[in-house]
Amino acid sequence: xxxxxxxxxxxxxxxxxxxxxxxxxxxxxxxxxxxxxxxxxxxxxxxxxxxxxxxxxxxxxxxxxxxxxxxxxxxxxxxxxxxxxxxxxxxxxxxxxxxxxxxxxxx
Amino acid sequence: xxxxxxxxxxxxxxxxxxxxxxxxxxxxxxxxxxxxxxxxxxxxxxxxxxxxxxxxxxxxxxxxxxxxxxxxxxxxxxxxxxxxxxxxxxxxxxxxxxxxxxxxxxxxxxxxxxxxxxxxxxxxxxxxxxxxxxxxxxxxxxxxxxxxxxxxxxxxxxxxxxxxxxxxxxxxxxxxxxxxxxxxxxxxxxxxxxxxxxxxxxxxxxxxxxxxxxx
Lengths: 107, 215
Description:
The structure holds two protein chains of two kinds.
Chain A: H1 8-29, H2 34-56, H3 64-88
Helix pairs in contact in A: 1-2
Chain B: H1 2-7, H2 24-52, H3 60-63, H4 66-91, H5 95-125, E1 134-136, E2 142-144, H6 148-179, H7 189-214
Antiparallel strand pairs in B: 1-2
Helix pairs in contact in B: 2-6, 2-7, 4-5, 4-7, 5-6, 6-7
């Protein structure tokens, strides 16, 4: 029979998740610098995701290879954001009035 | 069957995958979830890129309701707990506990969807659109900005909402099968697999809540 861990671990995980959620909201409402707020919020979100994955999804007790499979998209997504930024993250320029077309125009 | 597995560590039986005890289904679900995580990751990465390059992206907290969504986050976390307790119940042949907790998980999902629908109705009514938006605040101001704010919001939360809907239907099937006696302490892999999907939906919402609503 599969290992049956006591349900206490699930309750404890729930409380950690609840506390992290409340902290996230407090940080979101605080007037902090964007970078610090970003680091704190993303860090807490990743912590909550890790708790759900490790305890509710039982990854903590599965074979390590499965955890590597599960972790891979996270690494790829971070890479994806960096790959997208040059295309989408360019600062918008003011509209430039195009020069008068001089070729192919009937005079 | 599983005791034999434990004694022959490293040698999977014919009906066991090499990575997940007892069940190929579990490995299959994990592989599916990894692919789905990439879908959500792509949407969120695109959202991040669009927002980073935008000159007039609004502060989400000024338009979206953080309080309601915080409660929705709490609701999904609680539903994950009831899901895992439902699995624990059937693992010790407690059919009544299984029915109760899976039922509560489904209820949590349904309430989440109802609240999401209410939130969308309120936002659309206040002017947030898919192709553009003009927001009328309660103070009478009129705000507008990057149209992609509305587009990305509805696509990301809508895609997640579709996953919750699918999860509710999936869990209803599991509940029905369990009610008819399909599961027991020696046969509950399908419940565990459904649980994996549900926890994934919760996990994605945690990320969506952070990136779309809080940041």
